[in-house]
Amino acid sequence: MAIAAAFNLEIRQYDAVNAFINTRLDKLVYYYCPEGFNQNGHILKLLMALYGLKISPLLWYKELTNTLAKFGLKPILGTNYLYTDRRLIVFFYIDDIAVLFAKKDI
Q: Which strand ranges, in their side-by-side order, compose the sheet holding 88-93?
C-alpha cells in the first residue's frame, strides 16, 4: 500500500477462485471413493489437485509463477511472492493476487 501511495499507482486485487483444483497434478494420484458414493472397492484417479492434498499448495505456486514468467514478469531477488516487469508489480499470497500499475500504462 505504501508503494502504491508513494508512486501514485493503481491497485487491482484478484482472488484465484478454486486455485488448487485448477492445478494439474505432476504425478499419478489415486483416491478412495468418498463415503456415500456406493462404489465400495473402487478408487478414483485424480486429474487435478484437490484441497487437502499435501502437494496442492506447491503445485499451485509452480503454476502461478510459471504463468507470471510466461508473461515476462521476473521475481524480485530474495522474495518468493513478488514479481515485476517495467510496468507491473505483482504480489501474491496463496490465491490472493495484487497488481500495481501506473494509470498511464492502462
A: 10-15, 96-101, 88-93, 82-84, 74-75
Ramachandran angles phi, psi of 83, nearest 5°: -125, 150
- The string of pLDDT tens digits covering residues 5-39 is 999 999 999 998 888 888 889 899 988 877 777 77
- Model's pTM, two decimal places? 0.81
Question: For residues 13 and 4, what is the distance between their CA atoms, to the nearest angstrom?
Answer: 13
DSSP letter string, 9-64: -EEEEEE-TTTGGGSB-SS--EEEPPTTS--TT-EEE-SB--TT-TTHHHHHHHHH
Q: In whole angstroms, give the CA distance from residue 74 to residue 66.
A: 10
Domain residue limits, the chain: 2-105
C-alpha–C-alpha distance, residues 6 and 26, integer Å = 42
- Please give the Cα distance from 88 to 64 (Å, whole number): 16
